[in-house]
Amino acid sequence: MRYEFIGVAQEDRLTLITINRPEVLNALHPPAHHELAAAFDAFQADPNQWVAIVTGAGERAFCAGNDLKFRAAAGRQAMPESGFGGLTSRFDLEKPVLAAVNGIALGGGFELALACDLIVADERAQFALPEVRVGLAALAGGLHRLPREVGLKTAMGIVLTGRRVDVAEGRRLGFVNEVAPEGTSLDIARRWAAEILQAGPLAVRATKQVIMRGLDEQGLNEALGRQKDYPAVVAMYGSGDALEGPRAFSEKRPPRWQGELSGAVTGRDLSHDHAPQLKENPQ
């Protein structure tokens, strides 16, 4: 697909998605939303792509949210079903997505970053959900994700005032994983991605699915009881990687991950007894 408002590049197993509207601080209008949705669709479907990074073009902004000037001129237009930026309502993506926040992340831009699994932010970055200041509400997931990450009262203090949160506060509150020196957020995000890519890709997806689905279970007992039936867990134990990891560990060599099913362990009756056991810490 030819893109006009975003850039997409593949770096071995890594997909880099760049919002490319720096003239409007990478604010998104419907055509850009649909391009991002298509890019994430392609990433999700490609078995050779294991991790994605989303960032913004230029030095000032990751994403300034909705392009309100475009909306005022063109009126309301249809959004992709996968949500703001093609990601905020995409709940079936087990592959990890990282946000390299290279500047301001406001409104939907902050919501897009919160929908990612990790956030690396430039030391100049600022975050806000300022919708209340223009008579709107942050309905692309921010009002649900932020309280889950920083706690109810802290989130209320941010969203009811619409105030900006600098990167140091974001790190202290826990939604920023690492603060990057000026101009290096993408480099640091690539380093995080490289570390993830050293792990088994199906194990990474199973881990993400267990965490995300477990948050929706009624309690810890239910989460523990159902995790063996989660599709990504079944796929992990049904892969050759489930044998390759312990084999590589015992042979003292780097694993050669395939990220494919091979029937190593199959069925929905998995238990902890099926999991390969390591006799020592692989670290």
Automatic annotation (TrEMBL):
Q: Does the keyword Signal apply?
A: no
Annotated GO MF terms: lyase activity
Q: Which domain of life is it from?
A: Bacteria
List the CDD domains: crotonase-like
The alphabetical list of record keywords is: Lyase
Sequence segments annotated as region (Disordered): 244-283
What name does UniProt use for this protein?
A: Short chain enoyl-CoA hydratase
Q: Which family does it belong to?
A: Belongs to the enoyl-CoA hydratase/isomerase family.
Q: Write out the GO biological process terms.
A: fatty acid beta-oxidation
Q: Where is the composition biased (Basic and acidic residues)?
A: 269-283
